[in-house]
From TrEMBL:
Organism annotation: Longivirga aurantiaca
Name of the featured protein: Enoyl-CoA hydratase-related protein
CDD domains: crotonase-like (cd06558)
Family: Belongs to the enoyl-CoA hydratase/isomerase family.
Record InterPro entries: ClpP/crotonase-like_dom_sf, Enoyl-CoA_hydra/iso, Enoyl-CoA_hydra_C, Enoyl-CoA_Hydratase/Isomerase
């Protein structure tokens, strides 16, 4: 088992649990991740997902040992497709995903960060688009990373492969926030708590908006969003949420406090 899955208090934590390999995206890990994302999608008790890692590295990217062996042709044929399946599982997931980036990130690990909805990196983490340094390109992850990063920053970081600070990639648009070690988990938890206040259907459809609207022309976007808005305002979730707001009480999906 290279990935650990735990559920507590409405939060599914998916942990890359191979610190001895710096959480490289091995064949086993790439196979396990979509299974855990699917489990979280199907579990009504799960409201938010936190993706994190063990050790001092969040994810070191592709398993270069697998790519450099006699079985390299097989790796080249299957590895990119397996990574696509992981990233699609994240992008299309109905529940928000928060990346808790507790350590360094290289290569394909940047794709996991970019495919998350929100991400918090510990201040000491270093990031590198290291592909060009080993003779390949950040091909698959460019789909998710370029959608987030400022174009000039993307050109610099993807072409040079330089190892940079968490603050540098935050300025580039790759991560949402950077936190010092003492407050790291508190910052992650603050995002999780904020997400738990949103209605499950509302969050899922907002993720759909974020995914679909930027690629639509204006007429199609207005037609889609008007229809979506009408369906949401007439939903049971919206009626319950608006009634709770007017009555100055928590929405029924909000966490209860003892």
């Amino acid at each position: 088992m290279t990935v650990r899955y735990e559920v507590d208090g409405g939060v599914a934590t998916i942990t890359l649990a191979s610190p001895e390999t710096k959480n490289v995206l091995s064949a086993a890990m790439l196979a396990e991740l979509p299974q855990h994302f699917a489990a979280a999608a199907e579990d009504d008790a799960v409201r938010v997902i936190v993706l994190t890692g063990e050790g001092n590295t969040f994810c070191a990217g592709a398993d270069l040992s697998g790519a450099s062996t006699a079985d390299a042709d097989s790796f080249a044929a299957s590895g990119p497709g397996a990574l696509v399946r992981v990233l699609e599982a994240m992008l299309d997931h109905p529940k928000p995903i928060v990346a808790r980036v507790q350590g360094h990130v290289a290569g394909g690990g940047n794709g996991l960060v970019a495919a998350s909805d929100l991400s918090v990196a510990v201040e000491t983490a270093k990031f590198a688009f290291s592909e060009v340094r080993v003779g390949v390109a950040p091909a698959v992850i460019s789909v998710v990373c370029l959608a987030r990063m400022n174009p000039n920053d993307a050109r610099e970081l993807l072409l040079t492969g330089e190892r940079v600070s968490a603050e540098r990639v935050k300025a580039a648009g790759l991560v949402t926030a950077v936190a010092e070690e003492p407050s790291f988990d508190a910052v992650v938890r603050a995002y999780v708590d904020a997400l738990l206040l949103g209605g499950p259907q509302a969050l899922a459809r907002t993720k759909e908006l974020l995914r679909r609207v930027p690629g639509m022309d204006r007429d199609a976007a207005f037609a889609f969003t008007a229809q979506l808005s009408a369906s949401l305002f007439s939903s049971d979730e919206a009626r319950e949420g608006m009634t709770a707001f007017l009555q100055r009480r928590p929405a029924p999906w909000a966490p209860t406090t003892d």
